[in-house]
Specification:
The protein is α+β, with helices and mostly antiparallel strands. It is built from 10 helices and 24 strands. It has helices spanning 3-14, 17-20, 23-34, 182-188, 233-244, 247-255, 282-298, 362-373, 410-422, 477-483; strands spanning 61-67, 70-76, 93-100, 108-116, 123-128, 136-143, 146-147, 151-154, 166-171, 195-198, 258-260, 317-321, 325-329, 345-346, 379-383, 401-402, 428-432, 438-444, 454-460, 470-471, 487-501, 505-513, 523-532, 535-540. The strands form 4 sheets. Strands 9, 10, 11, 12, 13, 15, 17, 18, 19, 20, 21, 22, 23 and 24 form a 14-stranded mixed beta sheet that branches. Strands 3, 4, 6, 7 and 8 form a 5-stranded antiparallel beta sheet that branches. A hairpin with a 7-residue loop joins strand 3 and strand 4. The longest helix is centred in the middle third of the chain and has 17 residues, at 282-298. The radius of gyration is 23 Å and the shape is globular.
Length: 541
C-alpha cells in the first residue's frame, strides 16, 4: 500500500460513512488527510512580500468567465513550482492587481488588492466589477518587488445587444506526457477571440517520468514525485504546477479569457459521479474527488460560486454574448449514472437504455431546459465533454457503442433533444472534447433513421496533445464514416477548433498541427464547415 493510499484510507476511517458523504464531512476529511485548515478556519499570519526573493509568477496569469461588466483574474504564487508548498510559507500574501485599456498600462482603469491564502495554495481569484461591455483590457499582478507577465482579456457584449460576429476556440485533452502543447502557441496568436472553451482533461492523473514522457527532454529532469498517479491534494497541486509551467499553455491563458469545464482525468479516468474506475470504497474515492476538485478551482480562472465544498462543485453555468449566443456549460461527470455493462464499447441493451439513466443529473437537466426556454439568442451553444451524437463502431447490425459517451445514456440524450425542440431552439451547437480527434456531426431527431430531421450540429475539438502525433485518417476511419452517415468529418491530428458565429451562419475551422512529440510544428486549417441559421446541417465551407 502506498503512503498516499494509506493517508486516504486513514482519513476515510476517521469519519463515519454517513458523516463523510456530505460536503461538510468530506471537507473535514480532506483537512484531516492533508493537514489543511478549512478555508477561513485559521487566520494565517501575513508575509512581508518583500521577503520573496524568487519570481513567484512562474505559473503565469489567466482570466475567465467573461461577463458584460466584469472579468475574473487569476494567478498563483509559486517561486518553486515543482516543490510541495511551492517555496512559500503557510502565510497570507497581499497581491496587487491592475487593469488597463492599453498593454503599456498608461491608462489604468481599475486597481485592487487581493490575498493569496495558503489554504488555497496561494492562488488568487480577483473579480473586477464595473467595466465596459464588449471591450479588451490588459491586466497584471504585483507582490513585493515582483510584477507578473501581462495578460489580455475582454468583457462580454452588453446583454441583448446586437453582435455582428463572435469568435471562440475550443480545446481539450492535454496530456503532458504525450507531447508538446504546440497548439496553444498558435491559439495564443489568434486574433479577436471572445473566449477559449476548455472542454475537459486539462491534466491527466497518470505518472510523468523524469524526461516528460513523449517530450523526451534532454535538457532537464523532472522530480520523482511526478512519476506517480495523482491521489492526494498535494499530488494534484503539483501536477497543475507542472502543466502550467509549459510556456505555450501560459501564452494561451495570457492571450484570451478561458471558460473551463472538466471531464474525468482531472480526477480519475472514467469515474461516474461518486463511483471510481477502480474498486475502492466510495468514501475513499470521494476524498480523492474532493482533493481533485479543490486543486481544480485553485488552478483555474473560476469565480466564487464555483468554489467547491468537499467533493461537490457546481461547475455548470451560463454565459451570454449579447443577443447572438448563449453558452450553457455542462458537467457530464459529477452527476452521471454509472456506465452500463462495465463501460467501454458494448452492444446496447436494456441496461444502457434504462430511461432512468442520466448523464447530467436531474437538477442540471432542468437547469439546461429551463435556460433554453428563456433564451432569446440566435445560437445556443453547449460546451460539454463526451460525444453527444450516436457513434456506431462498424457498419451493419453488429455494432457497439461507447458506454462512456451519450450513447450509453440514450434516454438522457432524448430528453435533451426533446427539450430543445419544445423550447424552439433552432440553432443548437454542441461542442465536445474527450476523444482526441476532430469530428463534425449532424444531430438527428432519430439516429437510427438517417433520413430523420437534422436538429443541430456537434463539433468535436481534437486534443491538444493526448494521443501523441495522431494521423489524418485513424485506423477506424473507414468503419466509422461508413457506419455513421451523419458524421461529416473525421481527423485524428492534434490542434483546436475555431468557431465563428454571426446572425446568418456558424463556421467551424479545424486547426491541426503535424506533430506534438517534437516542438514547433506549424498549424494549418484541415477543414472548414458551415451551418446556416434556421437550416441545421453541416456543409463544407
Amino acid at each position: 500500500m502506498t503512503s498516499e493510499s494509506s493517508q486516504l484510507r486513514a482519513a476515510a476511517r476517521h469519519f463515519a460513512r454517513r458523516r463523510f458523504l456530505t460536503a461538510t464531512g468530506a471537507a473535514a476529511a480532506l483537512a484531516f488527510a492533508t493537514g489543511l485548515p478549512a478555508a477561513g478556519a485559521a487566520q494565517a499570519a501575513e508575509l512581508d512580500a518583500r521577503k520573496i526573493t524568487e519570481d513567484p509568477f512562474t505559473l503565469g496569469v489567466a482570466s475567465g468567465d467573461p461577463l458584460p461588466t466584469s472579468v475574473l483574474l487569476w494567478t498563483r504564487l509559486a517561486p518553486r513550482p515543482y516543490e510541495p508548498g511551492s517555496g512559500l510559507p503557510a502565510e497570507r500574501i497581499p497581491v496587487h492587481w491592475e487593469l488597463a485599456h492599453d498593454e503599456r498600462f498608461t491608462r489604468v482603469v481599475r486597481r485592487g488588492l487581493a490575498t493569496a491564502h495558503p489554504e488555497f495554495d496561494h492562488s488568487v481569484h480577483a473579480e473586477v466589477p464595473h467595466l465596459e461591455p464588449g471591450r479588451v483590457y490588459h491586466y497584471r499582478f504585483r507582490t513585493g518587488r515582483w510584477i507578473s507577465p501581462a495578460g489580455r482579456t475582454r468583457t462580454a457584449p452588453r446583454p441583448g445587444s446586437r453582435v455582428g460576429e463572435l469568435r471562440v476556440a475550443a480545446v481539450s485533452c492535454q496530456a503532458y506526457h504525450d507531447g508538446y502543447f504546440t497548439a496553444y502557441r498558435h491559439l495564443a496568436a489568434e486574433d479577436d477571440l471572445a473566449a477559449v472553451l476548455h472542454l475537459g482533461d486539462y491534466l491527466y492523473e497518470y505518472a510523468v517520468n523524469a524526461t516528460g514522457g513523449a517530450r523526451a527532454y534532454t535538457d532537464r529532469r523532472l522530480p520523482a514525485h511526478f512519476n506517480r498517479e495523482t491521489v492526494t491534494l498535494e499530488d494534484y497541486r503539483l501536477r497543475y504546477a507542472l502543466y502550467k509551467t509549459d510556456p505555450d499553455l501560459r501564452a494561451a491563458h495570457a492571450a484570451h479569457p478561458f471558460v473551463v469545464t472538466w471531464d474525468d482525468h482531472e480526477t480519475e479516468n472514467n469515474y461516474a459521479g461518486g463511483i471510481p474506475e477502480n474498486g475502492v470504497p466510495p468514501e475513499e474515492f470521494l476524498l480523492r474527488r474532493a482533493a481533485a476538485y479543490r486543486a481544480y478551482w485553485e488552478n483555474q480562472p473560476l469565480r466564487l460560486p464555483q468554489r467547491p465544498e468537499g467533493p461537490d462543485m457546481r461547475l455548470h453555468r451560463r454565459l451570454h454574448f449579447g443577443g447572438l449566443a448563449q453558452f450553457d456549460v455542462l458537467d457530464t461527470r459529477q452527476y452521471r449514472s454509472d456506465q452500463a455493462y462495465g463501460d467501454g464499447w458494448q452492444v446496447p441493451g436494456p441496461q444502457s437504455e434504462d430511461p432512468s439513466r442520466t448523464m447530467t443529473g436531474a437538477e442540471q437537466e432542468r437547469w439546461l431546459l429551463d435556460g433554453w426556454r428563456a433564451s432569446g439568442a440566435v445560437w445556443n451553444v453547449v460546451p460539454q465533454q463526451v460525444v453527444f451524437a450516436q457513434r456506431r463502431n462498424v457498419p451493419g447490425p453488429d455494432f457497439k457503442l461507447s458506454m462512456d459517451a451519450w450513447d450509453g445514456y440514450p434516454a438522457s440524450r432524448r430528453r435533451v433533444l426533446y427539450g430543445a425542440a419544445a423550447a424552439g431552439i433552432d440553432n443548437l451547437v454542441v461542442l465536445t472534447g474527450d476523444v482526441h480527434v476532430g469530428y463534425a456531426l449532424d444531430l438527428k431527431a432519430d439516429f437510427d433513421d438517417p433520413d430523420s430531421r437534422t436538429v443541430g450540429t456537434e463539433l468535436v475539438a481534437t486534443s491538444v496533445s493526448s494521443g501523441k502525433d495522431g494521423a489524418d485518417r485513424p485506423t477506424n476511419w473507414d468503419n466509422l464514416t461508413r457506419a455513421n452517415p451523419h458524421l461529416k468529418y473525421y481527423n485524428g491530428r492534434r490542434g483546436y477548433l475555431r468557431l465563428t458565429l454571426d446572425e446568418r451562419r456558424a463556421r467551424a475551422d479545424f486547426r491541426t498541427v503535424s506533430a506534438v512529440t517534437t516542438p514547433g510544428a506549424p498549424v494549418t486549417t484541415a477543414a472548414s464547415f458551415v451551418t446556416e441559421a434556421g437550416d441545421p446541417g453541416l456543409r463544407p465551407a
